[in-house]
Amino acid sequence: xxxxxxxxxxxxxxxxxxxxxxxxxxxxxxxxxxxxxxxxxxxxxxxxxxxxxxxxxxxxxxxxxxxxxxxxxxxxxxxxxxxxxxxxxxxxxxxxxxxxxxxxxxxxxxxxxxxxxxxxxxxxxxxxxxxxxxxxxxxxxxxxxxxxxxxxxxxxxxxxxxxxxxxxxxxxxxxxxxxxxxxxxxxxxxxxxxxxxxxxxxxxxxxxxxxxxxxxxxxxxxxxxxxxxxxxxxxxxxxxxxxxxxxxxxxxxxxxxxxxxxxxxxxxxxxxxxxxxxxxxxxxxxxxxxxxxxxxxxxxxxxxxxxxxxxxxxxxxxxxxxxxxxxxxxxxxxxxxxxxxxxxxxxxxxxxxxxxxxxxxxx
Length: 363
What we know:
The protein has helices spanning about 10-30, 155-165, 195-205, 230-245; strands at about 45-50, 55, 60-70, 75-80, 85-90, 95, 105-115, 125-130, 140-145, 170-180, 215-220, 225, 255-260, 265-275, 285-290, 295, 300, 305-310, 310-315, 320-330, 340-350, 355-360. It is built from four helices and 22 strands.
């Protein structure tokens, strides 16, 4: 019988090859063909710079920054969206948003690695651009440094009364601080520690100190003032000039004043709203209880400071922020409750400038 020259079947060959491969693997100690294939790890994305609350106003330019990391490869690009309305791809790690619009914004960024995988949890920066703000109408405050034994103080007071009549009680506020905190000044029956302290504040912190114990001195919004009032016509013109000057300058604040004075006590609540960003400071809210129509012998006094309530240093500064301050006080039996009012104002104690004023009773 002749030799069988037929080739083995493919199945027999594959089996033989597998056996040979197994023998080789056993001989060499190699088991690489049993190792599982590891999945690619997705990249991670982190926000580095995101505006904090109150930091951005409408119209600002905002820069957002982020970073990416890939544990088993490299980052090839980043993709991003803003408010789900715009987006793109970049190899950079920052984005400049120019002239940002007012309102809430959401920015998302995610890294893409060299295997084409994206970060499944994009990094998010949420921020709000506040209103850019704007100045509002100013209520002017005139603080009169005066005393009983003053020949022409009544002239200044008359000029200030006329200003209230001409401009309105909601546009001009007046406080008269009767001062006798000096050995050379006779006692004043309506002076008190609070009114003396306010006089000292201006003597020590402004140019009013150059005219120490010279009366009258009307001070407008904490800075502008004139000394003396020997002529009624000139005094009225000077008062109106100063008021108009201040009214032409808008205020960064609005004040809403509510409360009540009755039954031997009073309470006042002031809501301070920031309409335009504040700088400087500290900005201090002050409240002064005043009384009109005080008669003492031949003297008739208005706007008399009866009580200065506790100061409140304000923490608000960004547009849209608000502070509510509440104070209570007791009506002294010697005061005429029907003639009382409360004047409130915010003063920048670094400059003495009064930013805004208001009153409790305006009817």
